[in-house]
């Protein structure tokens, strides 16, 4: 019976705990672990249009030959759902990672790892585009609103 | 007389007698869940984050705050090997409680480094299930523990009620966020916007994505918004009715199949979670056959068989990893996933419709 009483109390305590962790994630960053399913609650729904940011990477070797990779080809071993967020965070122009020599060295090693048969790349240009999608027409219309790029010399 | 004892009785009945399942049936579920996880782990790699620079590490508050970056590959390899070992422990019912709790802890630990890239996959129900069900003594039958008389024969069903609460609440948080986030606004469809962002922005490609992209039907998109919110919010209320909860699990499978086909987002792991709620009490004859078969061919055999099967699993995994060293099935699992998901869901659906989940 004592065991039953503990379980009953446990169930009663569970509800405020669940509500507490829900409120925590609603008003801050979602903790891990948390008893939650995907929220998608804060979507900015605005008259059939929305914007997203697209990243591409232009590689250049010592002879000046170039190759363009999108963020999927640039991080092929990263899980697909992580690529967009990770790239957006780490390669935003204002992020300090890009001024970190250790990170740039890692980037050169990463390219050598994912393309072991290619020549050593000497530079990578990160191209960041803001794209607007118009969903009011089919097929949807994509317009590039803004493009910015910056080059990183690889060791 | 006051109403208080009556409410307390109902509360007790809800916790302790909502779900009826026998020890062999829990054993069958445990074996199904462990097999499901062994198949899942076979095509999953937890070691890839170790190749990334610490600038990519942006773990959510919680477990991730304990680490400053990605651990070395050998540690993740060890974790993955222990994870597989704990799944085998659950499968054979060998130190079941320890294996189940360890399985949950290792999943929490290993997934932290995957999620540290910024996107949390909402698989917590599947992750928590082994630890929660270890409280039910799901290794009481069809297990090496039972053969060695290491565990009691009694099983508890209140952990199933607990799982139901966790499922209902998890979906409710999602529904509430959508409700307060403007999903019911008729000006534009949130599902439509999310669909295009997933296909064009994230780069996913479901089997039906191309067809859905041609839909120019605002009313249909808006209906999907409303149905999603109603389904997710309603799941919490369904927790208090066995009949409704089972129907919500069934709708949940249909919902996830739709998401997989349209958005290429797989929640096939929820098949393993929702399977806990099939109408066990009406499946006595069928589960008796399965139980007898497993008892005769798996649990009455010498330990060499179990050790041999475990070694074969590890051997096959290492062979596959050698042939496909990195990225095996990372992105290319759509067809396999869809096929397996449809098969498993179809099977569950068949039982639901045949047996008609009743009270």
Please, could you describe this protein's structure?
The complex is a heterodimer of chains A (155) and B (359). Chain A is extended. Chain A has helices at 2-27, 71-74, 80-90, 101-114; strands spanning 49-61, 66-70, 121-134, 141-153. Chain A is an alpha+beta fold and 155 residues long. Chain A has four helices and four strands. Chain B is mainly α and 359 residues long. Chain B has helices at residues 4-17, 23-42, 73-92, 96-115, 124-134, 144-147, 158-180, 190-202, 209-212, 218-238, 242-263, 269-274, 284-299, 303-323, 334-355. In chain B, helix 11 packs antiparallel against helix 15 (334-355). The longest helix of chain B has 23 residues, at 158-180. The interface between A and B is large, with 65 and 74 residues.
Name the shape of chain A in a single word: extended
Q: Please count the helical segments of chain A.
A: 4
The mean pLDDT of chain A is 85
Main sheet: strands, sense, barrel of chain A:
4 strands, antiparallel
Low-confidence stretches of chain B: 327-332
SSE pattern of chain A: HEEHHHEE
Overall number of strands of chain B: 0
- Report the β-strand fraction of chain B as a percent range: under 5%
Annotation, overall tally of beta strands of chain A: 4
Put the structure in a nutshell:
The complex is a heterodimer of chains A (155) and B (359). Chain A has helices spanning 2-27, 71-74, 80-90, 101-114, and strands at 49-61, 66-70, 121-134, 141-153.
Defining traits:
heterodimer, A: alpha+beta, four-stranded antiparallel sheet, 4 strands, B: 359 residues, 15 helices, globular
Architecture blueprint of SSEs:
The complex is a heterodimer of chains A (155) and B (359).
Chain A lengths: L1 H26 L21 E13 L4 E5 H4 L5 H11 L10 H14 L6 E14 L6 E13 L2
Antiparallel strand pairs in A: 1-2, 1-3, 3-4
Chain B lengths: L3 H14 L5 H20 L30 H20 L3 H20 L8 H11 L9 H4 L10 H23 L9 H13 L6 H4 L5 H21 L3 H22 L5 H6 L9 H16 L3 H21 L10 H22 L4
């Amino acid at each position: 019976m004592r065991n039953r009483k503990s379980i009953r109390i446990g169930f009663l305590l569970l509800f405020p705990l669940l509500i507490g962790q829900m409120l925590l994630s609603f008003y801050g960053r979602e903790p891990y672990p948390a008893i939650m399913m995907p929220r998608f609650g804060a979507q900015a729904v605005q008259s059939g249009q929305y914007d997203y940011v697209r990243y591409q990477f232009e590689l250049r070797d010592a002879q000046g030959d170039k190759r363009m990779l999108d963020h999927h080809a640039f991080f092929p071993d990263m899980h697909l759902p992580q690529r967009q967020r990770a790239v957006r965070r780490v390669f935003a122009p204002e992020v300090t990672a890009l001024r970190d020599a250790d990170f740039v060295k890692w980037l050169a090693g990463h390219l050598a790892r994912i393309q072991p048969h290619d020549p050593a790349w000497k530079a990578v240009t990160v191209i960041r585009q803001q794209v607007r999608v118009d969903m009011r027409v089919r097929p949807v219309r994509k317009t590039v609103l803004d493009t910015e790029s910056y080059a990183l010399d690889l060791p | 007389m006051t109403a208080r004892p009556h409410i307390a009785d109902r509360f007790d009945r809800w916790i302790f007698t909502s779900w009826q399942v026998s020890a062999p049936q829990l054993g069958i579920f445990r074996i199904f869940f462990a097999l499901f996880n062994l198949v899942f782990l076979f095509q999953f790699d937890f070691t890839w984050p170790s190749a990334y620079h610490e600038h990519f590490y942006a773990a959510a508050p919680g477990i991730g705050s304990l680490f400053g970056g990605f651990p070395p590959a050998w540690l993740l390899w060890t974790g993955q090997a222990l994870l597989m070992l704990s799944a085998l422990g659950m499968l054979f019912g060998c130190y079941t409680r320890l294996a189940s709790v360890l399985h949950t802890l290792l999943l929490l630990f290993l997934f932290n480094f995957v999620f540290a890239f910024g996107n949390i996959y909402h698989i917590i129900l599947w992750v928590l299930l082994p630890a929660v069900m270890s409280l039910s003594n799901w290794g009481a039958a069809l297990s090496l523990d039972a053969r060695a008389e290491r565990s009691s024969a009694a099983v508890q069903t209140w952990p199933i009620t607990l799982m139901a609460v966790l499922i209902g609440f998890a979906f409710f948080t999602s529904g509430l966020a959508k409700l307060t986030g403007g999903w019911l606004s008729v000006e534009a469809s949130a599902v439509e916007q999310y669909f295009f962002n997933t296909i064009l922005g994230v780069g996913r490609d479901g089997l039906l994505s191309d067809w859905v992209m041609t839909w120019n039907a605002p009313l249909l998109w808006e209906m999907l918004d409303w149905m999603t919110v109603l389904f997710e919010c309603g799941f919490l209320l369904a927790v208090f009715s066995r009949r409704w909860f089972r129907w919500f699990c069934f709708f949940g499978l249909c919902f996830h199949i739709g998401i997989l086909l349209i958005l290429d987002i797989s929640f096939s792991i929820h098949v393993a979670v929702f399977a806990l709620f099939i109408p066990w009490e009406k499946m006595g004859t069928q589960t008796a056959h399965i139980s007898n078969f497993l008892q005769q061919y798996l649990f009455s055999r010498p330990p060499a068989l179990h050790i041999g099967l475990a070694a074969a699993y590890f051997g096959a995994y290492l062979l596959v990893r050698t042939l496909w060293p990195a990225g095996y099935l990372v992105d290319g699992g759509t067809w396999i996933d869809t096929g397996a998901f449809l098969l498993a869901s179809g099977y569950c659906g068949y039982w639901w419709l045949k047996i008609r989940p009743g009270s």
